[in-house]
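Sorry to interrupt, but I need a hand with the structure work. Please put the record directly below this note.
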Amino acid sequence: MSTLLGDPVKTPSTGFDAAGRRVLVVCALGGFTTLLDNSVLTVALPALRQSLHADPTQIQWLVAGYSLAFGLALVPGGRLGDVHGRKPFFLAGIAAFTVGAAIAGAAPSAGALVAARLLQGLGAGLVNSQMIGTMQDTFTGHARTRALGLYAVTGGAAAGLGPPLGGAVIAAVGPEVGWRLVLFLAVPVGLVTLFLAGRHLPSTRKEGAPDLDLVGLLLMGGLTLALMIPFVQPSQSLLFWLPVVAVLAVAFLRWQGHYARSGRRPLIPPALGKSLPYVAGTVAAMGYFGSGLAYSLVLVMFLQEELHLSALGATFVTLPGALAMVITSSLAWRVARRFGRHTISAGLALTAGFALVSGLIALAAPREHLPVLLALAATGQNAAAGLVIAPLQAEVLRHASPEAAGVAGAILQMSQRIAAAICISAVSGIYLNGGDLAFFHAVLTCAAVATFALLVSLRGVIYGIPTKNVAN
């Protein structure tokens, strides 16, 4: 059976029975918990900065440190889940994240809050690396695309509901107590997730001697760190880190080859690294994910800095788009079953198109109409994005063997995080230094990156690879 990006590893069946639905609920709660905490933090930053007298470097680490720790935990977490079973690491990740949330809410100083956020990032990375692998193990065929779509729904709901929820809490109780309550929100949800995961996640014990490739894990961790630091902490010199990245990448690839030749199982299975469909799909996902997050960031910046909307006012401009993504993500599996690869192609094309439309609106529309018009364009952009997330992920992950499901999903997520860090850094730089046409140039860049993702996803078509029946 053929697919968007090549021939799949196997022909899948289904998996949406009662036990599967319970697993999906647990995974969705895990995703919602980790994403909600990150989305509400943006609203709480001004209040906690004043309350804890945090300096700019500490504020930077509150935001960037979470993403950095998250990225560092993904691939080791995925590999550990592949080797030892996913449930214990899911539970450990949720527990660490919840403890971190409790420490963050009670933090006596900015330094303690930064440490708590790093712990939360590690926990969130460990949890998310297990979720993709668990859904790979539990669902197949259209059921997998549907499950990934419903998982994406929780991400859209968390991103959309977080800022207004945080704003409402702070408005109700005041900034001094409000920011602490906002950070405490993750604790009860985390405890519920921990309880349900203990009851409903399957306990899978792997047979045979475990082979963790510890050197590979260390090299991958160092490579991830070197890739992300210049972008999550822009004060670091990119020229310094590029040679470090090159050295670590060469060392990692050489070690993986040596490890495989010795008859052991390397961190990244050779078949996965050589799979053009998996690599091309991952690159396409990187372009889509990075451009989407960068677009959202510069839109909010433009609404607040140029149109002088409050943080809550800007949130209500972007909220319809988040809701649109929730709706289309939940329906994407049906659309993919009907239209195959054209679902992903159309979604990527519309994502690029609506980003460009946003820039043209900012150039030509009357200022008083901009919030409404930009809200409409952002709604279209997010609705199109919802058609891409689950079908593209399902297509990419179909090319991973079951024993590499966790690390394949972790690499996909880590790649997207790195792409997001790079795109956010580059696009925000274009916006901040772009003068009168800053917003137009920034969203034009987002449109170009989304177009690149579209071209990469169509590579199979260009080279004559059959592409019908996506996620069948």
Q: What stands out?
A: Confidence is low (pLDDT under 50) at residues 1-13, 460-472.
